[in-house]
Amino acid sequence: PGDGCYKEVAAYLLDHKRFAGVPQTALARCDVNLGQQTVKVGKEGSRMGAFQVYQPNCGDADDFGPGVFARDAVHRIAIFDLRVLNCDRHGGNILVVNPTEGGAEKNLVPIDHGFILPENVGTMGWPVWMDWPQAREQISAEQVRYVDGLDAKMDARILSDELERRISQASLMNLRLGTALLQKGLRAGLTLYEMGTMVYSRGATDERSILERIVTESIDAGVAREGRFNEGNDLFEMEELASESGEETSNWSETTEDYIFKYASRLLDDHVKAAISVKVKATVGRRLLSGTGRVRSIPEFGTSLKPSRMDSKRRAALSRSEDGSSMAKAPIQRFSPSAVTENNVFHE
């Protein structure tokens, strides 16, 4: 769609070290010979195209159940999608590849990235991997290290230079936000599914996603800040007033783009902390329901009475049966709820 070919190349450039396995992709220009006239497709105004290396496969993800997919492969694609805010990840654009070393689990190859890096962050459609059990599992330490090493600001510069500035500044800003969400969430111990719920929606809904609300509030704050400059306020006067009121004076010299990003980053921190709090409470609730760590306040059936606490008359009565025979060989009595009295103390 439109400049989708540039997004396809961007996906390959952002997949450092072939982490997610995006096939090698390049921009292509085609010269067409129509007899006496040669038509050049490229900078002269016609569309460019994306040329991608063919990936042998045994089908797409819709042809298989998620149980045969390697957990590591699912996590790598989910990490990539969250980073670039992919709006179009269904089973048909994930190729399935047989393992090369005879393993049982199949590998995955992501394709079709024309809808990554949106200019406007809305509530995006539910990606297929959000329904796979692997998305709810913790990712490996190796993958956490990879995410920690990402530099979205540098990546934005690379895309701008390599793709002739065909990726808009708004899209590059959203690359930074998607990467920030991923890094903050993984450092806090959130799963990819938990982070996905901040971005995606399963169906048509009027409720905006957490990320959409964050971006909207941050842009509004940036516009309001820019408006103060447009009103003719002198930068040095604003810094002096900010200093007197205790505000950070360095903020006034930042670009609007950097200000919006920092504002959104602080909001992301708050929402990640809230998600962790909910997760901890849910974990505690499950443990209580399952009985983990519960102190039993009543005895189990089959526990014995402590003879020393019985009165002498009852002890004597229990020592004989109705026919007068001794009961000394059977000191254990079965617990019956109806037999509980203030004189009976039960011990495990």
Q: How much is the average pLDDT?
A: 80
C-alpha-based Rg, rounded = 32 Å
Helical content, roughly?
Answer: 40-55%
Major sheet details: 2 strands, antiparallel
Major sheet strand order: 1-4
> What is the CA-CA span between the terminal residues?
72 Å
User: In sequence order, what are the helices and strands, one letter per element?
Assistant: HEEEEHEEEHHHHEHHHH
Sequence stretches where pLDDT stays below 50 over 5 or more residues: 294-308, 326-348
Number of strands: 8
Structural class: mainly alpha
Number of helices: 10
Beta percentage is: 5-15%
Categorize the overall geometry: globular
Task: State the main characteristics.
348 residues; mainly alpha; disordered C terminus; two-stranded antiparallel sheet
What does this structure look like?
By secondary structure, the protein is mainly alpha-helical. The protein has helices spanning 4-14, 71-84, 141-148, 152-162, 169-188, 192-196, 210-230, 235-245, 256-290, 312-318; strands at 25-28, 31-34, 37-40, 49-52, 94-97, 107-110, 124-125, 200-201. The strands form four sheets. It has a two-stranded antiparallel sheet with strand order 1-4. It has a two-stranded antiparallel ribbon with strand order 2-3. A two-stranded antiparallel sheet has the order 5-6. Strand 2 and strand 3 form a beta hairpin. Helix 5 (169-188) packs parallel to helix 9 (256-290) and helix 7 (210-230) runs antiparallel to helix 9 (256-290). The longest helix has 35 residues, at 256-290. It is globular. Residues 294-308 and 326-348 have low confidence and may be disordered.
